[in-house]
Amino acid sequence: MKRTLFATLSALALSLTAAPAFAGETVAVNSQSVNNIVEITPFNLVSRSYQGSFKDRSIPSYGSFVKAANGGRITAKDLVKVAIADGRLSPETINDRGYLRNVTSHLNSLDED
What we know:
Blueprint: H1 2-23, E1 25-29, E2 36-40, H2 42-50, H3 62-70, H4 76-85, H5 97-108
Antiparallel strand pairs: 1-2
Helix pairs in contact: 2-5, 4-5
């Protein structure tokens, strides 16, 4: 009985920790083509960049990411361009001041320990 309860609680805890990682993404369908674009929130864009999701696109991860962001070598526009190229944002997002402002805010909140 204890094992079953422990296994159930463990599975529940794991599912609750994985869900927020995907909660910030929605699917947007471009009506002019058949491409599906997964829209990523500004917070998730910065978070995934920090975690190394865009290392293959020359965005460093973890401590190097924080140093580059704090030093101005990585900007909100850089991250948005990478996300557009990766199919995570629609091309119009590069001109969305509100989105860029939110990404900049999250970049500015990174602490360099």
